[in-house]
Please model this.
Amino acid sequence: MAGLKGLKKKRRIQLIAFAFVLLAGSAGLIGYAFQDGINFFRSPSQVVSDPPRAGEVFRIGGLVETGSLVRGQGETVTFKVTDTNEAVPVSYTGVLPDLFEEGAGMVGTGSMQDGRFVASEILAKHDESYMPKEVVDALKAQGIYVEPAK
Model:
């Protein structure tokens, strides 16, 4: 009987060890699957002070700098996104959202290429008072956010 109890204990330890191996393996697979699906947000000041690694896809947000929007040079539109401390040049090939304009809040997804943010997607404010949460947080952190009038 004593040998049977030892065998049960040994089997239980093996099952627990096997469960931990499966858990670690599944966590690794989930992390691998998400590596391209997670895009971190950065303000223009963060991009300038701590440049992203080559090819890293991330989101940048801020205000479209007044006087920087250039349309009509083929399909590519260029402008600068700013958080009022730093400005990052952006280029985007495609159709901009209807509410996209100078001085408005925007968030773009893309990567840095030769000192320019090349956007694959541009999102603009929803209405006159909307600004993306990340942009509001970045402006509040710098102490320059002004609550829009209701």
User: Anything to note?
Assistant: The longest helix spans residues 2-34. The beta strands are 41-42, 58-64, 70-73, 76-82, 87-93, 105-113, 116-124.
